Amino acid sequence: MKGGRTVSARTVPEAPFQETPAQRPDPGPGSLEPPSRAPDAPDASDAPDAPGTSGSPEAADPDHPRSRGADARALTQVLFKEFIGLEPGTPEHARVRAALIEANLPLVRYAAARFRSRNEPMEDVIQVGTIGLINAIDRFDPDRGVQFPTFAMPTVVGEIKRYFRDNVRTVHVPRRLHELWVQVNGASEDLTVLHGRTPTTAEIAERLRIPEDEVLACIEAGRSYHATSLEAAQEGDGLPGLLDRLGYEDPALAGVEHRDLVRHLLVQLPEREQRILLLRYYSNLTQSQISAELGVSQMHVSRLLSRSFARLRSANRIEA
Questions:
Q1: pTM for this prediction
Q2: Where is the composition biased (Low complexity) (predicted)?
């Protein structure tokens, strides 16, 4: 029948199928309706490895940075609960302290990466940041309700900034002079212990069997490397202190990775040597200032430092 009231035979049977979409065939290519999904097709959100699912990448990958960070935070909380109840100076206290440092070294590396543009060896920056981490661990109070990374980051970054402020390298030092600087500083320590005074450049040159002008060139290299006055008189005897001038960042630690440094400082060294090293490299005190702080002679401080460095070098060779 003609007219708008006529209903076609095709339209009537389609009504029940609209109520049960699972039974309705997909429309043809010319249809405006979206194609229906197969009844047994899995939802993308049910796929464990599908991107954009409820399962996060870190949940699927335990090596994901966020997953590792969460593990480090959980481990840090457990270690601090044990750490605060231990007596300082005991082997157990040193063991847990070393474990805290090890667990949070990624935080130091993250902070150090912010200073890549400064053209300093990254291992040096990480080592300095590790000293800041040690200080943060010693001062942290879990009862204050602050997460340790939040508490430690300003201390680590501040230590690195102070390093760049006090030890900016103004001129590139040739590798040969840097290696010679290590020898000169070692000879200076030995001669100081032997004679009980700061050695002259001539004595150092004779000890190393090199021309005196090479010793002076090494001192000049130290001047450009450290932005620290090489002419400052040593406290106590009024003489120029070659140990203090060349030993601001003692090259005896060169080649010792920060993990070895931390581990052996805290585990293998006696408590007194730990304190001397922290005063020397965290507080940046001279040997004269350390001797006044501890009430011992400067010669004794020099011997303790040399002994500590020998232990570190020996331990590093064993692990290597």
A1: 0.37
A2: 34-51
